[in-house]
Amino acid sequence: VAYATPGVDLSLNVDEVLRQNRLQVDQDEVVLFLENHGLIVSALGPERAWRLLEETLKKVEGTLGITENEE
Questions:
Q1: What is the rounded distance in angstroms from the CA atom of residue 50 to the CA atom of residue 36?
Q2: CB of 36 within 8 A of CB of 3?
Q3: What is the pLDDT of residues 9-50, one digit of tens each?
Q4: Model-level pTM?
Q5: What spatial distance separates the first Cα and last Cα of the chain, rounded to whole Å?
Q6: What is the C-alpha separation between 56 and 38, in angstroms, rounded?
Q7: Where do the DSSP E strands lie in 1-71?
């Protein structure tokens, strides 16, 4: 998701990405990377959202070659 000022502008950018990709946060598991902001994880239920976050972080760490002992 392109950078936007946090708040309404960022919300509009997130909505645009969801619509372009035909994603529905109440039905799909969604991970959005925000330029200069971090990421948004959405899933049905907090436990699944947490697992999706952990899975995403492991993939990013693997891609970047980061090990658990690095800060």
A1: 22
A2: yes
A3: 999 998 999 888 887 777 778 899 999 878 999 888 999 999
A4: 0.72
A5: 26
A6: 12
A7: 30-34, 38-42
